């Protein structure tokens, strides 16, 4: 596989780029800059970029299956989000007891449920938890004790869910029942210090797990039994997340962050990259059923 990359939307250099999402409906990539409160849309048709400013930090947005618009994770909880015209309606704050926490990363399973993690925005206390938002808009905590929640993603058959604590350099694997119950939490992969920290993830059509390396200047591909298959080096140290895109799901986009870096020296930090997948294809993103 050729380790080729190119920069998309070079003028948009994010403090904390995250949450890349392929939208077939819009033929576009959406992503966020958490710290700048931005949501972006990059059109695959003409390369145009549009940006919306949210009233607080936004960790992610996922599309709805039967309705227009999105569900978004903000500093203060889960929200319904419409873009044209812009409207924002709170669903629930899962952690009113932790005003310093924020939602950080999320994915939708094949049953249309959102799995999302929280974290201490100051990255000091391990007050983060993993939540499941059901289509009826009820939310429940399913795991806790995280420092920096990341991922999550699902095996290709959705019998397993992978979820990360970046603060501990660890990717966990859970058994996932059709009813949405988690069990058998195991350490699936532990990063060594020279690899950076595991950040956002996705799974390809062959069942391999792709992981972004915060502080590791790369993305990596792992077999279901946690064997390293390949690495793709990138010209930015803080790589944050990955998505497959395009009608054939044969294009890959990767977000990064410039937070805390000297932008005059790290000239690609915070950019959105497109990666040559070498023929590897992804899986369609889940759509929220509520």
From TrEMBL:
Signal peptide: none annotated. Pfam families: SGL. Keywords: Hydrolase. Residues 16-257 form the SMP-30/Gluconolactonase/LRE-like region domain. GO terms for molecular function: hydrolase activity. InterPro entries: 6-blade_b-propeller_TolB-like (IPR011042), SGL (IPR013658), SMP-30 (IPR005511). Its EC number is 3.1.1.99. It comes from the Bacteria. Belongs to the SMP-30/CGR1 family. This is SMP-30/gluconolactonase/LRE family protein. It comes from Steroidobacter flavus. The lineage of its organism: Bacteria, Pseudomonadati, Pseudomonadota, Gammaproteobacteria, Steroidobacterales.
């Amino acid at each position: 596989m050729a380790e080729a990359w190119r920069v998309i939307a070079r003028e948009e250099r994010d403090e904390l780029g995250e949450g890349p999402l392929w939208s077939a409906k819009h033929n576009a990539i959406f992503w966020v800059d958490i710290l700048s409160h931005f949501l972006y849309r990059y059109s695959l048709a003409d390369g145009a970029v549009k940006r919306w400013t949210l009233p607080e930090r936004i960790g992610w947005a996922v599309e709805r299956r039967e309705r227009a618009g999105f569900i978004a994770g903000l500093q203060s909880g889960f929200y319904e989000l419409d873009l044209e015209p812009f409207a924002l309606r709170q669903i629930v704050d899962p952690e009113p007891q932790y005003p310093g926490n924020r939602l950080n990363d999320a994915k939708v399973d094949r049953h249309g449920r959102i799995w999302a993690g929280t974290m201490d925005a100051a990255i000091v206390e391990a007050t983060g938890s993993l939540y499941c938002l059901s289509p009826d808009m009820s939310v429940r905590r399913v795991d806790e004790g995280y420092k920096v929640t990341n991922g999550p993603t699902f095996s290709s058959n959705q019998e397993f869910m992978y979820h990360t604590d970046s603060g501990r350099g660890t990717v966990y694997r859970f058994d996932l029942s059709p009813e949405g119950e988690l069990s058998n939490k195991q350490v699936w992969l532990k990063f060594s210090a020279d690899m950076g920290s595991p950040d956002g993830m996705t799974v390809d059509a062959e069942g391999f797990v792709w992981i972004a390396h915060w502080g590791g200047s790369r993305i990596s591909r792992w077999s279901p039994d946690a064997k390293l298959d390949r690495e793709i080096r990138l010209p930015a140290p803080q790589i944050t997340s990955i998505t497959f895109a395009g009608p054939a799901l044969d294009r890959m986009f990767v977000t990064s962050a410039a937070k805390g870096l000297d932008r005059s020296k790290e000239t690609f930090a915070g950019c959105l990259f497109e990666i040559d997948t070498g023929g590897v294809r992804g899986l369609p993103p889940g759509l929220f059923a509520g």
